[in-house]
């Protein structure tokens, strides 16, 4: 990742910073908090999340695609 950051002439960027940005920007798309937590790799926090919530990869993909679409629209990139 550091090589890409340097080649793109970006400021210092970390994996944690990317996760933080994803979490922050996901609110603009109204992503459910449990979906966001799972995508960024957080462990389930409550009993319901730990024992009763099962999210198939297709559900995570659905929301990630919505996020990606919004990001591209903000950058005026046609997809």
Topology:
Layout: H1 2-7, H2 15-25, H3 33-39, H4 47-51, H5 57-74
Task: From the alpha carbons, calculate the radius of gyration and give it in angstroms.
Answer: 15 Å
How many beta strands in the DSSP annotation? 0
Gross morphology is globular
Our count of domains comes out at: 1
Helix fraction, binned, reads 55-70%
Number of helices: 5
**Sheet having the most strands:** none
Mean pLDDT over all positions: 89
Please trace the helix and strand order, writing H or E for each element: HHHHH
Enumerate the spans where pLDDT stays under 50 for 5 or more consecutive residues. none
Distance between the termini: 24 Å
Structural class: mainly alpha
Measured by DSSP, the beta-strand proportion falls in: under 5%
Descriptive overview:
- The chain has 79 residues and is mainly alpha-helical.
- It has one domain.
- 59% of the residues lie in helices and 0% in strands.
- It has helices at residues 2-7, 15-25, 33-39, 47-51, 57-74.
- The longest helix is centred in the C-terminal third of the chain and has 18 residues, at 57-74.
- The protein is globular and about 45 Å long.
- The model has no long low-confidence stretch (mean pLDDT 89).
Characterize this entry briefly.
With 79 residues, this protein is an all-alpha fold. The chain has helices at residues 2-7, 15-25, 33-39, 47-51, 57-74.
Characteristics:
mainly alpha, 79 residues
